[in-house]
């Protein structure tokens, strides 16, 4: 095994460990938390708001390829998709497929 | 050991009109292509998704690896971005705990906690008796995890054929899917406020501290939403 590939394996193991750690500690804490307790409700709010923060950040300050599209185009695509979701009785296939196509088209014709 | 009826009922969540398959597929195809571009081989890419199965963490790993960050730095960066999995686990597992079920199921299946599987379970848990929820959850987890692994392989193999426009298109699918799922989850004052405030405060905190914006913005938003909901 070359040095490069053993290094990649280590990087993957470290990443996996860093990821599993939060999940594992979550289960440990869960053993003592009742679903009717206040602390459960509080964690529930935090879980939803952290996810909302993460998703909003992916749209407003994206990393990677998405950063090469304009922010107003991304926001437009998200709004159109949510409207489509609500008007198709909460179908998730239409808005997700449409979002990729609309973004690719707009990004080509409206790029700054 | 695992009740197959509930397992397959959960596994089938990956079919149907509210399936996470497209969104998960799109983002892990992008991950597969990204891992190939930074020099991973196919086995390493599969291994990575198999063991990590958390999108933002894999992105951070790829970025850090590219700039030659040390293992300690990679650990800290990934741990920080994936800390959100802690409140997600704490707000899910108590719903699945049942004294008749062995503990190893919980410690193994927490590996499946990621946004898509979590949102599906939160939407559906009430329709399953508590005793069987963990098997249902293992079914959802196995289904979504399998999609992620297969998509990583597809992305790796197809990377040469994916144009820039296609990659940008793939990248929006995931946030759009999650946004729709979150809108669908808005069913109580506390949850609605948590989601709306989180979506505002997360990006707002980015101006103050980019690395901590999601945790700080999210924790503050969730805490405000909790107290407003309790006072009502």
CA radius of gyration of chain A: 20 Å
Provide mean pLDDT of chain B, rounded. 94
Low-pLDDT stretches of chain A are none
Oligomer: heterodimer
Number of strands of chain A: 0
Biggest pleated sheet of chain A: none
| Cα-atom radius of gyration of chain B | 18 Å
What is the terminal-to-terminal distance of chain A? Answer: 46 Å
Q: Please trace the helix and strand order of chain B, writing H or E for each element.
A: HHHHHHHHHHHHH
| Low-pLDDT ranges of chain B | none
Please, how many helices of chain A?
4
Strand content of chain B: under 5%
- Give the distance, in angstroms, between the N- and C-terminal Cα atoms of chain B: 44 Å
How does this model look, in words?
The complex is a heterodimer of chains A (112) and B (232). Chain A has helices at 3-30, 38-60, 71-87, 93-109. Chain A is an all-alpha fold and 112 residues long. Chain A has 3 domains: 1-32; 34-62; 65-112, no CATH class. In chain A, helix 3 runs antiparallel to helix 4 (93-109). The longest helix of chain A has 28 residues, at 3-30. Chain A starts with a helix and ends with a helix. The mean pLDDT of chain A is 92. Chain B has 232 residues and is mainly α. Chain B has 2 domains: 4-177, no CATH class; 186-232, no CATH class. Chain B is globular. Chain B starts with a helix and ends with a helix. The model of chain B has no long low-confidence stretch (mean pLDDT 94).
Outline:
The complex is a heterodimer of chains A (112) and B (232). Chain A is an all-alpha fold and 112 residues long.
Write a concise keyword list for the protein shown above.
heterodimer; A: 112 residues; mainly alpha; 3 domains; 4 helices; flat; B: 232 residues; 13 helices; 75% helix
Helix/strand layout:
The complex is a heterodimer of chains A (112) and B (232).
Chain A lengths: L2 H28 L7 H23 L10 H17 L5 H17 L3
Helix pairs in contact in A: 3-4
Chain B lengths: L3 H8 L9 H17 L4 H11 L2 H12 L4 H11 L3 H6 L2 H4 L6 H7 L5 H10 L5 H29 L5 H22 L3 H18 L6 H19 L1
Helix pairs in contact in B: 1-10, 2-3, 2-4, 2-10, 2-11, 3-10, 4-5, 9-10, 9-11, 12-13
